């Protein structure tokens, strides 16, 4: 019986090592740095690559790393009890046009889903919620703001009883927008819907991986979690 072939390495056609590629993707997606900022910081470490290489690597490997993170975390979250979702939409400028980034966050601050639409109506809310429910198990409660599109979409889905609306109860998802806003300013906005959707999804998963809740734990625990997250990052796509 022939032995099963080992999957080919996704890094096999690149001269740089996988460690350098992972470092470049992490620096560009996780931190509010431009392509040229990443190029300059790497040059100080003795790594000579161009900013276009940074662009190519994050476009090629960012979704791959994000997919590994997403698969691991989804399997762990499906068994949660009393799982609460917080839904909200934020506006993003796209070539001077206003589009909307819908986001679902759980009670721990984990970003579950990101979805870009041009409208903020019932159809957009329904597509967003169907996508979130397809990828994750049904929550115990869904917290939203007063946007009527949520109520109309939940009426069609038949889970209106789970909706909770309040003035301050949705601060969890409102605060989760801040890292993306900082990253958006460093990138000087977006030009295409496809690019925005791609970056929002990749950024959300990498942010989840390195979101260590340092304000809730002591210094030693934070250092241990940070080391574990970095070690796991080095194993992605290996």
UniProtKB/TrEMBL annotation:
Keywords, alphabetical: DNA recombination, DNA-binding, Transposition
Residues of the DDE domain: 83-210
GO molecular function: DNA binding
Pfam families: DDE_Tnp_IS240
Organism superkingdom: Bacteria
One GO biological process term: transposition
Full protein name: IS6 family transposase
Species, as recorded: Sphingomonas baiyangensis
């Amino acid at each position: 019986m022939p032995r099963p072939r080992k999957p080919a390495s996704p890094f096999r056609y690149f001269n740089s090592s996988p460690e350098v590629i992972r470092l470049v993707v992490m620096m560009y997606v996780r931190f509010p740095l431009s392509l040229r900022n990443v190029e300059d910081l790497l040059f100080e470490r003795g790594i000579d690559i161009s900013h276009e290489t940074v662009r190519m690597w994050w476009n090629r490997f960012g979704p791959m790393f994000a997919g590994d993170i997403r698969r691991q975390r989804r399997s762990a979250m499906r068994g949660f009890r009393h799982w609460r979702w917080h839904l909200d939409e934020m506006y993003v400028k796209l070539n001077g046009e206003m589009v909307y980034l819908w986001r679902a966050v759980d009670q721990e601050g984990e970003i579950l889903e990101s979805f870009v639409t041009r409208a903020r109506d019932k159809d957009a809310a329904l597509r967003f919620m169907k996508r979130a429910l397809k990828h994750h198990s049904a929550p115990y409660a869904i917290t939203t703001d007063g946007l009527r599109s949520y109520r109309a979409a939940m009426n069609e889905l038949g889970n209106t009883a789970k909706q909770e609306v309040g003035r301050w109860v949705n601060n969890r998802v409102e605060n989760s927008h801040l890292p993306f806003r900082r990253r958006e300013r460093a990138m000087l906005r977006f030009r295409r819907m496809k690019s925005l959707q791609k970056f929002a999804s990749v950024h959300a998963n990498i942010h989840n991986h390195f979101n260590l809740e340092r304000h809730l734990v002591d210094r030693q625990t934070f250092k241990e979690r940070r080391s574990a997250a970095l070690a796991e990052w080095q194993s992605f796509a290996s």
